[in-house]
Amino acid sequence: MFTKILVANRGEIACRVIKTARKMGIATVAVYSDADRDAVHVEMADEAVHIGPSPAAESYLVPERIIAACKATGAEAVHPGYGFLSERASFCEALEKEGIVFIGPKPRAIRAMGDKIESKKFANAAKVSTVPGWLGVIENAVHAEKIAGEIGYPVMIKASAGGGGKGMRIAWSKAEVRDGFDRARSEAKSSFGDDRVFIEKFVVDPRHIEIQVLADAHGNALYLGERECSIQRRNQKIVEEAPSPFIDAKTRKAMGEQSVALAKAVDYESAGTVEFIVDSQKNFYFLEMNTRLQVEHPVTELVTGIDLVEQMIRIAAGEKLAIKQSDVKLNGWAVESRLYAEDPYRNFLPSIGRLTRYRPPEEGRFGDLVVRNDTGVTEGSEISMFYDPMVAKLCTWAPTRLAAIDAMSEALDSFVVDGIEHNMPFLAALMQHPRWREGLISTAFISEEYPDGFAPIVPDSEEKAVLAAIATAVELLRRDRLDRLGGRLAPHSGVLKRDWVVKIGKDYRSASVIEGMISIPMELGLSIDGGKALTVASDWRPGDLIWRGTVGDRKIAAQIRPVPNGLRIAWKGMSVTARAMLPRTAELERLMPEKVAPDTSKMLLCPMPGLVVSIAVAEGQEVKAGETLAVVEAMKMENVLRAERDLTVSKLKARPGDSLAVDAVIMEFA
Fold first, then answer.
1. Fewer Cβ atoms within 10 A, N terminus or C terminus of the chain?
2. Does position 263 have pLDDT exceeding 90, yes or no?
3. Which Gene Ontology molecular-function terms are recorded (predicted)?
């Protein structure tokens, strides 16, 4: 077994690998760029080596610097994590020449399966079911249009060396093929240094289901069940689960055996994932094989009890698999939510900044539930524009699917992140969505259920009653605390004020204290709008970020943040401003004028922090609705900004190469 390994990655996956290595008694070496000098993975490792500037192309993607770090520290092996150099065969070969072990498959398998075009050719030859498509070189956009027409719309345009949703476009018409081809090639070249793309038939309403495989150097291979990865946005996975609510035992066995056969055909050694698209009749088609550890591997670990990173290390060290296919049992259900630094209210555009608060839920086993959080940040960490926007992977396990989903819902409500925009409200709302809870999903789920983007969930009458009860309980404690401050001229102490009005958004609800007294812990009887009394119980204290307790028979975990003259309460995807006040205050408050938002209709604002790639118009130019105005790159994704109506450009305020903050003015219109 190795005594020291180097982790050629950053963020949560670097931390994940270090944890297992530490458990196995193996020393670890971290590498870091300028941007990651104070990163969590650097602190966790036994040693750390600086490998260059912040851009990945000048640090994490430079094999020579990784090899030099191995030589300097005496690391015997390299674990690549995912992304970066994890699927670069030339990197494996360079390590082998230096006598350093690559913790992953051999170069032949990476070449055969890592390239999407070559992998499909190989799968066809091995009689694996594949999607109809064109696997040869596509010369230009005209050639792409011809191929798409022959295959039949819709088609998927994909980067051959791609991954993570980059370099992928769906085209429903000839016009979309041309634009999609150009964008896919541009993104592919920017992200992977390889602008080759291919085209295949797009299966409507498919599920994205993948099989986890393990194979050693002694001819042993097995599969560890499937993962359902259909909840995606722009081909980027958001939520995963294991097992799939759609796959039956017969289909699982067929997919698993085919995956193992494919792995054996390329002499695969290590953990790998065979991805399929599955139609409504459970017909499955080979999509690609990822010759590395997947982002979503924790859900497989939770339902099988098998540490995939440990298995990768043992296989790389030459050990035989200690488990057989008959040993693999799927126990319970696991769900993973990816916490991204992106604004769900701005069509999930990237966000960067410092984590002024980062308080994940407590990890561990709690009765029949397990909570796990794989992360590479801590409070004070900076989310940089240089790398992937994923902040953490929150996972829950329970004996049943709905119990795992409910555990995820509570864990999300208990996860405090401030300083950046993030997709937690969307994830929390998703956990309540009836279609998701029933397992009736496809890769089109988000576009179908949120065609106009994600908007804050509007609470119904019952939910408003819960929010009003929380706001009243918080206000009673706040006022009582103020009353106990010495030197106050006009304290509110005396008889408990029993009648209140709670403003939630623009709605006013009455709240009456029926019984109980102000204390910590608190237990009150409250009537909302004259309804049946609700028992409100909590040990919340002023200053706590999470209000935990019960309102009636509902167990609540809600985030509380003070705002001017009130509170912001976040709960189950809802985010409302609530203000509890005395009736006379409410009477006067209703008379206050509303502030009017400034008019920005004659400006193009940068929707995210990013780099201006190009400006497609000039001052004085007349533009038609739908035409491209500018292209902004954020976290390696190119975002095309188009005119929403016919207009004339009056002034350009930015130029290519400019780095802009969110809402910075790019241009003005007449």
1. C
2. yes
3. ATP binding; metal ion binding; propionyl-CoA carboxylase activity
